[in-house]
Amino acid sequence: MTDQADVDRALDAAERLFNARGVQGVGMDAIRDASGVPLKRLYREFPSKADLLHAVLEKRDLDVRSAITGFVDANAASGSPRDRVLAVFDYLAGWFAEPDFRGCMFLNTAGELGGTSQDVLTVGRRHKLALRDYLSELVDAAELPEALADQLLVLANGAMATAALNGTPEAAGQARAAAAVLIDAAVR
Questions:
Q1: Cβ pair 92, 149 in contact under 8 A
Q2: Strand extents, DSSP E, the chain
Q3: How many angstroms separate the CA atoms of 107 and 84, rounded?
Q4: Do the Cβ atoms of 73 and 127 come closer than 8 Å?
Q5: Residue 1 scores a pLDDT above 70
Q6: Most-buried pick from 8, 42, 48, 97 (CB within 10 A)?
Q7: Are residues 99 and 43 in the same domain?
Q8: Local confidence band at 30 (pLDDT 50, 70, 90 cut-offs)
Q9: What is the helix (H) or strand (E) element at residue 127, kind and residue range?
Q10: Total tally of structural domains belonging to the chain
């Protein structure tokens, strides 16, 4: 087993556990048990749980951004720029329907630890700004007003929170419908 394989297993296990139980509800022993990576090895790679959380959030950021852009490219590639914007909400609908969906890890972690961890807030803000920048690219390609990107981000984040609290994926469709209204109003 390579060092990188151990790191990957630890990050995957920590992400699953943090997502399911929250950060404070998961100890390093649980991550060791779920990953099969010895505790000594975990602490060699991640001297503290905060270091592990930072690495999990960084990995999650890259994974989510890649998943969204990949979905939009694959599912709206031949569509209009408007369709590409709306495809973001189609991605959310699929994500919200996954059995392990518990909401946005960045929003959840910021809610749990944001008052005590500037690092969590920094990584979460960076992730949300990157999503906003992606929405801005889509809005620009559709020749829509720049302010629409911020409005779409509010819709997406609101849908994430609503879907997590309600335990159903319907919020994605509702947010998509609201996004379509905003786009149509901006075109007029």
A1: no
A2: none
A3: 24
A4: no
A5: no
A6: 42
A7: no
A8: very high
A9: helix 118-141
A10: 2
CATH assignment of the domain containing 164: 1.10.357.10
Q: What is the mean pLDDT of residues 105-113?
A: 95
- CATH number reported for the structural domain that contains residue 33 in this entry: 1.10.10
Q: What is the mean pLDDT of residues 37-46?
A: 95
Residue 154 has pLDDT above 50, yes or no: yes
Nearest CA to 87 among 105, 101, 69, 104? 69
| 10 lies in the same domain as 87 | no
46's torsion region: left (phi>0), alpha (psi -120 to 50) or beta?
beta
Q: Determine phi and psi for 70, rounding to 5 degrees.
A: -65, -40
Write out pLDDT tens, residues 50-99.
Answer: 999 999 999 999 999 999 999 999 998 678 899 999 999 999 999 999 99
Rounded CA-CA distance 27/32 in Å is: 9
Rounded CA separation 101/167 (Å) = 8
Tokens of 21: 């139980």
Q: Supply the range of the domain harboring residue 150.
A: 54-187
Q: 114, exposed or middle or buried, with CB in 10 Å at 0-12, 13-18, 19+?
A: middle
Residues 158 and 87 in one domain: yes
